[in-house]
Design a protein that fits this description.
The protein folds into two domains: 216 residues, Jelly Rolls; 48 residues. 19% of the residues lie in helices and 30% in strands. The longest helix has 40 residues. Strands 3, 5, 6, 8, 11, 14, 15 and 17 form an eight-stranded antiparallel sheet that branches. A five-stranded antiparallel sheet has the order 4-7-16-9-10, with no helix packed on it. The protein has a three-stranded antiparallel sheet with strand order 1-19-20. By secondary structure, the protein is α+β, with helices and mostly antiparallel strands. It is elongated and about 110 Å long. The structure holds magnesium ion.
Length: 310
């Protein structure tokens, strides 16, 4: 019953789409998007991801003395830097501040994810822990606070999904386009395509300096113990297509340019306006004629002469 219904529905849909007399075409031949098998859960790396830490070891990293224990890595002495360099990426990273709360403000569960080794997304235990807002968890350090504080309690795991667009520099060093970042913290959007002013600095105003189109991911040692797990990254590659013609509209089986369609619309609009104006003028003329005719049929009676005085 269901399959019969589906077949009929599909046939009806095909028929109705073939009957549509107008159909916009972009003029771009798109390549089929690659098939990426996702992880079993959204925390697990998709098939095309580069895994930077899966709980086994820190072989994808250099620098720092960070210890792996029971599937997690503990921040230790010195910053750790990924051996591989990246440009535009999607980065998944999970982190947790110690369950035993120690310190406050910037001194509690402080670490950080540095994109391209320069641009910090703050890691901090911001659960019931006030600090300057552009320095709390998920802030772009000293550039903007997060849109919300989505912290889980100390000891619980936090997730950042980071979507990074690297800055582009012209040959002469000018910023062609700045860096942008979108961050989702525990499923909550906390940075929405934020335009960075430059690399993070504690002491200087942020400003861009030319750097390579790719850079490593670094994790900060701020002297506070923070745990990490499930770190993986995917390169963001744009959709691929080739323009084969200007955009056009298929209308009644013919290819019509978008400009011609626009022109046609304008002409129709003009014709309609003229038509309306003529209709209005005719209506007004009719009303006037009717009023004249009515006047003739029932002329205004002359005033009666005043009664003679007696
Ligand atoms: Mg930090």
């Amino acid at each position: 019953m269901t399959s019969k219904f589906s077949a009929i529905t599909l046939a009806a849909l095909c028929l109705s789409s073939s009957l549509i007399a107008q159909d916009y075409k972009s003029g771009i031949e798109w390549q089929e998007p690659p098939i990426v098998t996702p992880g079993e859960t959204n925390a697990q790396p998709p098939a095309d991801a580069t895994v930077l830490f899966d709980g086994t070891d820190m072989s994808a990293w250099t620098g720092g003395e960070w210890k792996v224990d029971d599937g997690v890595v503990y921040s230790g002495k010195g910053m750790v830097i990924s051996k591989e360099k990246f440009g535009d990426i999607q980065l998944h990273i999970e982190w947790s501040a110690p369950s035993k709360v120690k310190g406050d403000g910037q001194g509690r569960g402080n670490s950080g994810v540095y994109l391209m080794g320069k641009y910090e997304i703050q890691i901090l235990d911001s659960y019931d822990n006030l600090t300057y807002f552009d320095g709390q968890a998920a802030s772009i350090y000293k550039q903007t606070p997060p849109l919300a504080n989505a912290m889980r309690k100390p000891g619980e795991w936090n997730t950042y999904e980071i979507f990074w667009t690297a800055p582009r520099f012209a040959v002469n060093g000018d910023v062609e386009s700045p860096a942008y970042v979108t961050v989702v913290h525990n499923g909550v959007l906390v940075q929405n395509h934020f335009e960075l002013m430059g690399p993070s600095s504690f002491v200087e105003a942020p400003h861009y300096k030319v750097h390579d189109p790719t850079g490593p991911i670094s994790l900060q040692d701020h002297g506070n113990p923070v745990r990490f797990r499930n770190i993986w990254v995917r390169e963001i590659k744009p959709a691929v297509g080739q323009r084969t013609s200007a955009p056009y509209v298929m209308k009644d089986g013919k290819q019509v340019s978008v400009e011609a369609m626009q022109q046609e619309k304008e002409t129709q609009k003009f014709q309609k306006a003229v038509e309306n104006a003529v209709q209005q003028a005719l209506k007004e003329a009719d009303a006037e004629a009717e009023a004249d005719a009515a006047k003739k049929e029932s002329p205004v009676p002359e005033e009666e002469p005043a009664a003679k005085e007696q």
